[in-house]
Design brief:
Length: 232
Amino acid sequence: MIYSQVMETGGKDMSANSKQKHLVIFQPSGRRGYIREGTTVKEASRQLGVDLEGICGDKAVCGKCRVRIEEGFFEKYGIESSRKHLTPISDTERKFSNLQQERSGYRLACQACIQGDILVFVPEESRMEKQVVRKAATDRAIDLKPALRKYYVEMMAATLDDRLGDWERLQAELSREFGLSNLTIDYQALLTLQNVVRQGDWKVTVSVWMGKEVIVQQLQKVSAVKIAEFVE
Ligand code: FES
């Protein structure tokens, strides 16, 4: 087990010139230490040497850093852990969990900030795989499941006779070309859509998150129709 080097008073770090620090324990690794208030759980994991998944630079896009915050007093670890010891869950975080998971204490580690002692369980899917050195190279098919994909589309320009909105026009093209249906669009992306499609002469590259939501559009054309931006 690793303990951070802090002065402790009654289970809390009260070092001079610092914010209060709180006890954070990660399971199943058992790594623990005192972490400064306001630090994200993800940053705490880095400080304590726990490898957590995450490929979006802590921007709440990939949803891979999910952890579960345990509730109650754990005598074995000497910790009173509470989900209230984190900043409240945001709407952005809610995109990555249903009500049941939320009630079970699941949070995005890159968004939840520490405000008290917590016991953090890292589910298997959120643990970063250790690098494996193979003795001999072999051919192996890898099934890529990117969280974000880029799609290049050429839209029909609006005319006086065809007054379909830009978003409806883009949806129709993504459905026709790539079979993407029931898409939503990020609010910021929607605000810029009109300018982007006109500046790009009705040619646009869009990034689609998890096949569900358009989150960015760009003017430039990409060479491949689908490009994995982030790869699992
Ligand atoms: S690191 Fe991507 S959502 Fe947290």
